[in-house]
Every structure is written in C-alpha cells, then in structure tokens.
Design goal:
- Strands 1-4-3-2-5-6 form a 6-stranded antiparallel barrel.
- It has one domain: Gyrase A, domain 2 (2-Layer Sandwich), CATH 3.30.1360.
- It has 159 residues and is an alpha+beta fold.
- The longest helix has 10 residues.
Amino acid sequence: MPWPSPDNADLLVPRASVREVVEASGAPVAGIQAYEALRVAARRPRLGAETDHRTIVQEPEWVPTAVHLEKGCYRGQETVARVHNLGRPPRKMVLLHLDGATDELPAHGDAVTLDERQIGFVGTAVRHHELGTIVLALVKRNVGEDADLRIGDTRAAVD
C-alpha cells in the first residue's frame, strides 16, 4: 500500500481490536517499529520528534496541511508569514542514511555535526527493511547534499 494511505489516515488501535478494525476497514497491519520505519522513509515528521521549541511550520514542511496563511491573529503568525514570503526557513528536515559503523541507533536530540560543529539534531532514528539505518533530522538550511555529516562517530549521508 502506498504511503501515505490513500485517505491520509493512520489507525492506532488497541491490540484486542485489531482483527475487528482490519475486517471493517481493510487497513494493513504494522507494528509500531515498522510504522515508524515507514514514516521516516516517507519523510513524515512527527510533532515532538522532528521538532523542538524553535521549530516553525516551514521547516518540517507542514504549511500545506497545518497552517492557514490567510487567517489572522494567531501566535507566531508574523514569523510564519515572513518566512513564507521570503521562502527560506532557517532549517530543513532531511533524511540521513547512516554508514552502519555501529548497531546502536542515535537517540532523539543527538547532535548532527559538520566539521565538529553542531548543525542540527536527530529526530527519529529507525532500522528500515530496505534502506538500513535511517534518520529524520532537522539541520541548518545551507547544509549541502554532499556534506560529510556525523552523528557521534557515525557518518551520515543526506538522501
């Protein structure tokens, strides 16, 4: 099934109700680790995972689904409008492929570095059945596609 689902709905149900929900909806079944791996591979940010206290909606690319640019009087409206009009948020969300030097997954909030300088942080790190170890991270806008990034001692390549 393509991701996101055709109706853009993800169902989180108690284990005891899975059979009933699957029969009623025809939805595919996945455990939480598989779900998270598919979410990361699809570059779908999650509030609190790929965001921090400074995140603006343009960084995880939530403007089309989470913000009404014509509506007035909400907290952060001026910042959102300024970035929308200039078109350049200070950070961007990226998918990183890790080199597999370690079996440990990076933790949420671990530093993403370039030349030993922190340029971002790890959001969600997962093991994907085809892509291997991948990470959604929020990094500075000017990080190039070919940058030699690191998370600890592990090399990370921007996808």
